Amino acid sequence: MLSYYPYGSLLSGILLGGSLMFLLGLIDDVYNLDAKFKLIVQLSIATIVYLLGVKIDTLFNPFGSAIDLGLFSYPITILWIVGVTNAVNFIDGVDGLAGSVITVNSIALALVAVAMTPAQPITALIAFILAGSMLAFLTFNFNPAKIFMGDTGSLSLGATLGIIAILTRHELLLIVIGFVFVIETLTCVIQRLYYKATRKRLFPMTPIHHTFEKYLEEREVVKIFWIVGLFMSLLALIYGVWL
User: Fold this and answer.
1) pTM to 2 decimals?
2) For residue 206, what are the contacts with CB-CB under 8 A and spacing of at least 6?
3) Which stretch of DSSP H or E encloses residue 68?
4) What is the rounded CA–CA span in Å between residue 99 and residue 85?
5) Is the peptide bond before 62 cis (omega within 30 degrees of 0)?
6) Between the CA of residue 66 and those of 15, 54, 60, 190, what are the distances in Å?
7) What band does 145 get if pLDDT is binned at 50, 70 and 90?
8) Is the pLDDT of residue 242 over 70?
9) Does the CA dihedral 51-54-58-61 come out positive or negative?
């Protein structure tokens, strides 16, 4: 069980995974890396994190006993880390959107870590630090933004959120907490599949926040998505912590 792993391994998994994704994002922002190459590097980083002991051995089942993944632990862990990393990347692109949503998500995960038995104080502390850093970042990132996140920030933040969810053993709860970036990703996937099948677009633009921008001011779009993120995080906490 991850709850009983040495804190050193857990800390290494979070910091190394986030730092390596940060470096990848920085290089991508500067040199605009090939998408396939970037994916290969992300898979490699996720593998390193897995080898440090940060893995999904069992999957929480709200309707019964936890599901033992067995040999599927490695591919599911890798897909989870890479998937969350890129999902968070989709919500970047509008001033203040990624930062505000990640702030709420980080606080929710921190509260989950605190409420665990036994509690994970270091995991919670890292999540709270992540939220605090995002609040500081938002003072310069709200419209009109003076500083932009880019892949440097979004990839590292996405990986960190995904790894924290693994450490708290609440991976599925992050799907609710991170409802905003889940929907953003789904709309991109649906748009791509629909276009391949019909050569037409289902949504005017994806990620879906760009469609909202066609009808609302940018600040209004950020407010709506932030409120949705806050509401879904509260729902997740009610179920995951208090019930």
Assistant:
1) 0.89
2) 184, 187, 188, 191
3) strand 67-68
4) 14
5) no
6) 28, 18, 5, 30
7) confident
8) no
9) negative
